[in-house]
């Protein structure tokens, strides 16, 4: 293969890499997009999982090691990848999800698209914990605005200070179990609003379709009515002819010259098991917070002995994921309900953002509530413990024979569930670093995780459990399962489990306490940029994707400007 | 106890394994005649090459002995009988499904193998023959003992766990089949327009949509008109 020269090499095709590709290619730059997985298009019949019935799979949609969220889920990847281990230090129990496909983990996310608010960028000012971002809401607002219009997100303008208004598509009407939640929340004095999700409830342009309400965004949409990086950003960018796409290409390191500037990347073509080098004027790493940190740490040279961008020893530090906890209830009012199609959009139509800002609580930082339930399509697991709710009705549990059919219909769609997603405090000690002895199948040193929740997250989870109990009960539900107590950290999810991990290359003004500047540009090497969740200073009680996209757009404009000024 | 246990087990192990799923060593009951709709062994639903290979290997793997598969079939049939307008477990090919799932999730291998063995052992103790070779009434009398998880009887606990597992497999396998969708009356998984809970359902639940909330929702008659906003974020199309 001949050596190509590019203006920019982008590593990773998820949210950040997709936006960088779209913006930089549209600006006329020559772009190489390097993705470790395969090409993917949900409109390709060979790859389609949308609108399939459970019996089209021999395991009826059950999860596999390769598709942990079920074998119709579109995200190829997971917690465990063949030949690509990761390790833990001490009692760490970190879960690391990696996507291996065009579009990366945007094929997986719940399309929940929440802007960070003004407080989210300056939380140290409020509680003295963590660090402030070097930017504020006004710096990013124009990009959120443009993003809403380019990509599309349904929601509503509510005038909430820390959950800012935007340019929303209209919301889908609540489903029946969601109306029960709305009533329950009202009784409990907890606000509830239309959800904000990147799904097209209304036409946004002539290239993408409008949602047809199959409820299967997690399977990726054949008419591109939901956002994934590949369908919305990368395919259009590829059509412009400015982009060379390299798939099955596993990046080993960023190569640098005598001045310590990047000259390109080396990667392994996984099919040929052969190593190649690509040359470029600049490099954008968007491989995911931990993968980009790994590439930097593996990019050692005489100029960057501790790894590229790591003179401050901050690469991999401040790794933090969202907190999570969940609970479910049985709603007797929904027993024996009439069956109709309520698939709706993929996931929730309503949600509760953090509502106790400024209250004196046992913990700091908030969480939002995601509402689930309803008459979903049966898949593997449906019908397990078929009539366990009989317990609440004083009737017999178990049995056999045709009576079980009545039980199935009696309880179908009678469940209401809540999942909380909260903000943790980024900790200096929580990090990923190179394992000194373990390598992957291409000989690349792998990551070792060292991560513990603090008391703050555990107390937050306790509050989540109390809240969920109150809301499910006030919605008319009978709580299912036991409320996890202190011995189980109140059901707090494992770090990494919510797949919102960020912070490994945090931005800041002080090169001794941060890895990049406010544009995700390495302090140590000006032609290397990070476009994933790595530069996040704090996670907020929001899902990170919308902010990754907005920051990547802002960064792209900066790169274009710097190139025009010949600074790169 | 009508038969020497050791002698019986010898017979069981020496019984010939025929090629037909209907084969049995020739006693007098349902297992002789049991058959089910075979499920396909090839699938095409957006698989990657490694996934295709894994599934092909799973289909090629022989895990269950014929006797075990027949026992599974008898249990599935008891749990959801065929005598119903929407068919039952055997019409929906449940033994094939259970076999695949147990191979796919091998944490189930031992519980199912051991469960069948427990059931046989219990049937021999009680009625002198393994489970598929006792009469239907005898089979049902054993199921009555192990079909209810609340039963407090330490001797029966392994059987209760096994029966619960088989009920889970049967229910999930059936309700993820075409017959099961028919039985449930599931109507989703198809392009449509969601425009809220039907009025009569709302009424039945004493609910109504709040007018202010509805003002934020999609006007489905205008969904194809490209979205435009004023500078304040108000949708104007």
Mean pLDDT of chain A: 97
Terminal residue distance of chain B? 82 Å
Sheet/helix structural class of chain B:
mainly alpha
How many beta strands in the DSSP annotation of chain A? Answer: 18
- Provide a count of the helices of chain B: 11
- What is the overall number of helices of chain A? 10
Helix content of chain A: 10-25%
- What is the ordering of alpha helices and beta strands of chain A? EHEEEEHHHEHEEEEHEEEHHEEEHEEH
Strand proportion of chain A, as a percent range, falls in 15-25%
> What fraction, in percent, of the residue positions of chain B are helical?
40-55%
Biggest interface: chains and residue counts? Answer: A-B, 91 and 82 residues
Short structural summary:
The complex is a heterodimer of chains A (568) and B (237). With 568 residues, chain A is of the alpha/beta class. Helices cover 21% and strands 17% of the residues of chain A.
Question: Can you walk me through this structure?
Answer:
The complex is a heterodimer of chains A (568) and B (237). Chain A is globular. In chain A, strands 1, 2, 7, 8, 9, 10 and 18 form a seven-stranded mixed β-sheet that branches. By secondary structure, chain A is an alpha/beta fold. In chain A, helix 1 packs parallel to helix 10, helix 3 (137-151) crosses helix 10 and helix 4 (176-188) crosses helix 9. Chain A is 21% helix and 17% strand. The longest helix of chain A has 20 residues, at 455-474. Chain A starts with a strand and ends with a helix. Chain A has helices at residues 15-26, 123-127, 137-151, 176-188, 229-239, 289-298, 390-393, 403-411, 455-474, 545-564, and strands spanning 5-11, 31-34, 77-78, 87-88, 98-99, 193-194, 243-246, 249-256, 262-269, 274-285, 323-330, 350-352, 367-373, 415-422, 431-439, 445-450, 478-479, 528-530. Chain B is elongated. Chain B is an all-alpha fold and 237 residues long. The longest helix of chain B is centred in the middle third of the chain and has 19 residues, at 109-127. Chain B has eleven helices and no strands. In chain B, helix 4 crosses helix 5, helix 4 (66-79) crosses helix 8 (157-175) and helix 6 (109-127) crosses helix 8 (157-175). The chains are: A alpha/beta (568), B mainly alpha (237). At the A-B interface, helix 4 and helix 8 of A face helix 3, helix 5, helix 8, helix 9 and helix 10 of B.
């Amino acid at each position: 293969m001949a050596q190509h020269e590019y203006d920019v090499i982008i590593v990773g095709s998820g949210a950040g890499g997709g936006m960088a590709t779209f913006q930089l290619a549209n600006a006329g730059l020559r772009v190489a997009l390097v993705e470790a997985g395969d090409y993917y298009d949900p409109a390709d019949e060979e790859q389609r999982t949308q609108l399939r019935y459970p019996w089209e799979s021999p395991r009826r949609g059950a999860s596999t090691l390769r598709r942990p969220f079920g074998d119709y889920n579109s995200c190829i990847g997971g917690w465990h990848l063949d030949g690509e281990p990761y390790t833990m230090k001490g009692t760490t129990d970190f879960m690391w999800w990696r996507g291996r496909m065009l579009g990366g983990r945007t094929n997986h996310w719940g399309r929940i698209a929440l802007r960070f608010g003004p407080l989210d960028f300056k939380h140290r000012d409020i509680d003295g914990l963590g660090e402030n971002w070097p930017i504020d809401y006004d710096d990013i607002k124009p990009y959120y605005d443009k993003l809403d219009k380019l990509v599309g997100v349904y929601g509503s303008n509510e005038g909430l200070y820390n959950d800012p208004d935007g340019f929303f598509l209209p919301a889908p009407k609540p489903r029946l179990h969601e109306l029960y939640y709305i009533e329950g929340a009202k009784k409990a004095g907890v606000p509830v609003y239309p959800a904000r999700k990147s799904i097209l409830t209304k036409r946004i342009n002539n290239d993408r379709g409008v949602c047809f309400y199959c409820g299967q965004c997690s399977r990726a949409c054949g008419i591109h009515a939901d956002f994934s990086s590949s369908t919305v950003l990368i395919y259009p960018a590829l059509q412009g002819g400015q982009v060379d796409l390299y798939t099955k290409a596993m990046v080993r390191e960023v190569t640098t010259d005598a001045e310590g500037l990047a000259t390109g990347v080396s990667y392994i073509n996984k099919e040929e098991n052969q190593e190649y080098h690509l040359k470029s004027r600049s490099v954008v790493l968007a491989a995911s917070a931990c993968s980009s940190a790994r590439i930097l740490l593996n990019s050692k040279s005489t100029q960057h002995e501790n790894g590229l961008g790591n003179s401050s020893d901050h690469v991999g530090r401040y790794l933090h994921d969202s907190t999570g906890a969940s609970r479910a209830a049985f709603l007797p009012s929904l027993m024996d309900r009439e069956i109709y199609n309520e698939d709706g959009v993929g996931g929730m139509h309503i949600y509760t953002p953090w509502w106790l800002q400024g209250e004196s609580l046992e913990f700091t930082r908030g969480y939002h509530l995601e509402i689930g339930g309803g008459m979903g399509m049966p898949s593997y697991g449906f019908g397990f413990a078929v009539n366990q709710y009989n317990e609440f009705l004083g009737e017999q549990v178990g049995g056999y024979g045709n009576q079980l059919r009545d039980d199935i219909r009696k309880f179908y769609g009678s469940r209401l569930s809540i999942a909380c997603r909260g903000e943790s405090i980024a900790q200096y000690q929580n990090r990923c670093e190179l394992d000194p002895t373990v390598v992957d199948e291409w000989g690349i040193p792998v990551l070792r995780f060292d991560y513990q929740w603090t008391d703050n997250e555990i107390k937050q989870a306790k509050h989540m459990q109390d809240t969920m109990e109150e809301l499910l009960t006030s919605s008319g539900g009978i709580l299912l399962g036991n409320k996890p107590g202190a011995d189980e950290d109140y059901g707090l999810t494992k770090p990494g489990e919510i797949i919102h991990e960020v912070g490994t290359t945090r931005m800041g003004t002080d090169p001794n306490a941060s890895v990049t500047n406010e544009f995700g540009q390495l302090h140590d090497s000006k032609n290397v940029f990070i476009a994933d969740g790595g530069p996040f200073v704090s996670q907020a009680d929001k899902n990170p994707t919308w902010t990754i996209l907005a920051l990547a757009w802002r960064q792209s404009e900066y790169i274009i400007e710097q190139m025009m000024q010949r600074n790169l | 106890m009508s038969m020497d246990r050791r002698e019986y087990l010898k017979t069981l192990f020496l019984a010939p394994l025929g090629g037909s799923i209907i084969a049995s060593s020739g006693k007098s009951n349902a297992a002789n005649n049991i058959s089910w709709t075979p499920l396909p062994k090839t699938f095409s639903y957006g698989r990657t090459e490694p996934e295709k290979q894994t599934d092909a290997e799973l289909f090629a793997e022989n895990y269950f002995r014929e006797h075990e598969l027949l026992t599974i079939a008898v249990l599935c049939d008891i749990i959801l009988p065929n005598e119903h307008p929407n068919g039952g477990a055997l019409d929906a090919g449940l033994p094939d499904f259970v076999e695949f799932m147990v191979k796919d999730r091998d944490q189930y291998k031992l519980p199912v193998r051991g469960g069948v063995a427990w059931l046989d052992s219990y049937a021999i103790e009680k009625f002198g023959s393994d489970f598929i070779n006792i009469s239907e009434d005898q089979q049902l009398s054993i199921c009555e003992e192990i079909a209810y998880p609340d039963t407090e009887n330490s001797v029966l606990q392994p059987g209760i766990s096994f029966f619960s597992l088989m009920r889970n497999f049967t229910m999930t396998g059936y309700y993820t089949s075409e017959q099961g969708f028919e039985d449930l009356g599931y109507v989703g998984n198809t392009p449509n327009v969601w425009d809220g809970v039907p009025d009569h359902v709302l009424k039945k639940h004493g609910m109504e949509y709040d007018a202010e909330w509805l003002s934020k929702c999609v006007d489905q008659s205008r969904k194809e008109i490209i979205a435009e906003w004023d500078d304040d974020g108000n949708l104007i199309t």
